[in-house]
Amino acid sequence: MPNPDHWEKLSDCARAAEDHRDLSAPFGFSTRVAALWAAGARPLVPNMWEWMSVRSVAVALGVMALTLAFNSDLFSRGFSIEVSVIDTIDGPIL
Asked: What is the pLDDT confidence band of residue 44, given thresholds at 50, 70 and 90?
C-alpha cells in the first residue's frame, strides 16, 4: 500500500502546478458555429441510433396495443378469473 506521505506530497505538487495550455477557441470558430446554426444544417443521413430508437418505440407501442386488445376481456372482468391447475393441463399426465 502506498505511503500516505507520498500521496500528500504528490497532491501538493499537483495543486501547485500551473496550467500553460491555450484554452481559447481557434480563430473563426464562433462564426462557423453561428453560420451552421443559422443554416439549420443537419446531416443527410440520420443517426442510426435515432432511427432505430424511434422504430423500436413504435414496435413496442404496437405490441402493447395488440396485447391490450387481445386481453380486454380480462380487464373488463376485473381480474376475477379463477383458474385451477387441472384447467391448465392439456392432456393426461403419463
From this structure: low
Q: Do residues 55 and 62 touch, judged by C-beta distance below 8 A?
A: no
Where are the chain's structural domains?
46-94
From residue 79, give the alpha-carbon distance in Å to each of 66, 75, 83, 86: 18, 6, 11, 19
Distance separating alpha carbons of residues 25 and 36, to the nearest angstrom: 16
User: Using only C-alpha atoms, what is the Rg of the chain?
Assistant: 32
Instruction: Annotate 34-76 with DSSP letters as a single string.
Output: HHHHHHT---SSPPHHHHHHHHHHHHHHHHHHHHHHHTHHHHH
**What pTM does this model have?**
0.37
